[in-house]
Design a protein that fits this description.
FAD/NAD(P)-binding domain, 60s Ribosomal Protein L30, Chain: A, 4 domains, 21 helices, 32% helix
Length: 725
Amino acid sequence: MMHPHLPLTRDLVLVGGGHSHALLLRMWGMKPLPGVRLTLINPGPTAPYSGMLPGFVAGHYDREALDIDLVRLARFAGARLVPGAAEGIDPIARRISVPGRPAIAYDLASIDIGITSAMPALPGFADHAVPAKPLGAFAAAWDRIRSGDGALRITCIGGGVAGVELLLAMAHALRQQGRLAAATLIDRGAALSGLSPRSQSRLRAALRAHDVEIRDQTEVAEITATAVRLRDGREIASDFTVGAAGAKPYSWLSTTGLALHEGALVVSPDLRSSDEAIFASGDCAYMAHAPRPKAGVYAVRQAPVLFHNLQAVLAGGRLKSYQPQADYLKLISMGAKTALADRGGRSFAGPLLWRWKDHIDRSFMAKFAALPVMAPPPLPRHRARDLDTVLGDKPLCGGCGSKVGRRSLQAGLGHFAGASRTDVTPLPGDDAAQLATGGAIQVISTDHLRAFTEDPVTLTRITAEHALNDIYAMGGDPQAATVSLILPRQSPALQERLLAEITEAAHAAMTGAGAAIVGGHTSLGSELTVGFTVTGLCDRAPITLAGAEPGDHLILTKPLGSGTILAAEMSGQSRGRWVLGALDLMSQSQRKAAEILRDEAHAMTDVTGFGLMGHLQGICAASALGAEIRFDAIPKMRGAPELAEAGIRSSLFAENASLVPGLVLSGARTLVVDPQTSGGLLAAVSPAQSEPLLNRLRNHGYRAAEIGRLTGPVTGPHAGAITLR
């Protein structure tokens, strides 16, 4: 693991999660270079492994087996993952453009983005067909096709190895379902021309065995919704058309000013491009010293050289050269669990070769599924009592999972009420303080979060929404904000870059809410912490925790589960898509939800560190009511129930659970006390307004739900009692 207290001095940015970069991240996690901030830019949370795609299509592997989880891999490597597709590099300014966020600065960069399909240029292709690359999009499209019903006519344009493998896999899967009506392979030249005659013969026989019609020397003119129209005017009926020909580099590479060969980045033997600060590997790179066809085997074998050379440039050292092998073993799936091996003109086929290929592929993916556990440094032998108990057996959660529990807050603050002023209205327990400023009603609140993600832009956006929610919960309109930052020790250049990213993200979030940033404060510490103090204006009496009425329905505007998912992500137990899904929900503004609810809400709060039950208790206690909650009605973040059932708990869980001793909590039901970061609004509304409000919320993109009702009035020891059904 990277030493947490050493200053950062250099930025290394990896563009793309291809095979070279995936292996590099694993190597980096086992041997990091102190002082380097590592960043990975990739469009999604996973990178599909090309070697297992035909097996997935044929039904031999499930979707999860196909993907390298880049979120887990980035956590292991100590890297920040920026979800997005790079669209440009400025080698002079050393900036990388990613839509929707500030440009990312680098001292050293590496590009491994693969290639994309040239097929969309074919008339009708973009609307009625699916390219084989990028692999993730194709896999998602195939998932939808094979989960349907009815007979299908399938066509693959492109008779190379990739096209034949995919068509055999599709035909096999549909035949197993009894849904294959017809299958056609089209190639403008001779299919499989790059293989030995014996291998060509075997694969053509396999195609015929799957009832695939082979059309060599055939030009395609257009794709329609139901057919492939040929240049000679004939049509081939097709319900699912795949393009596996004409792969090309991404077009934005041509705007970089770097040396290119047919659109690919020209690299020297040390894998460096024409710019000494930019390396490249995989299919997007052209090895001028040893040209080779596009194949994943080269990307895999480039990884150790790339890892060494990047660290050598950053730390000072000699670079290595990558010398590719002249030929490589091609293992080609043939639909069913059989495969063909081709190398040096020799050819073999059979089930044993499929088992060999399966072993190779699973072994490769196992490198990313079973990441080594890097043990923390041991505690001193001579130490104070209870030190190990306070530390616990897992890392401290970020976000609201790291907050101080309610019991400790109440005991520590005691009866402190602050200075008594006539222009301050005491609202104990509410989301914000109420101030009288001239003739206006102003509310003010403050919030800060220690980093739960390595990406400062995502952290800033979520922290801003988290702080704004206190104003929204009071029915206010955001007015002004100040920013408080604790920055980790870094070189002045990296501090400048970090501040620029945070400032731009903060400005966008606050401006979008209608607030102005009017100042701030920075200091240095051991980790990044972002905070905001926010004021808002109310044109009527603020909405408080009091005021709820018996029978009111309870509306929640966001799913639960962020604390559990963040805790699982820190220990490498969450799927990447669950983590990014949670971060997206945490980034969702509640501004429109507050506008919809504030005219009808009798009481309102936002759900944060004390969990749903803790914040609901606040409403119940202030309004002298009880509550009944239907667990099945509560919206939950994707993956949160599975993780809760597996026993994943945030570090604040035990404290929150102790607040509701009468409830029996186990499995997924523990989510009701899960601490939320930038959680939803919880509003008490009249039964007559519940359904219309829900419809409006859902129409604006909120996963809102009516989760229960308030009961009572309740007095005495049962005040604030909550029943969970």
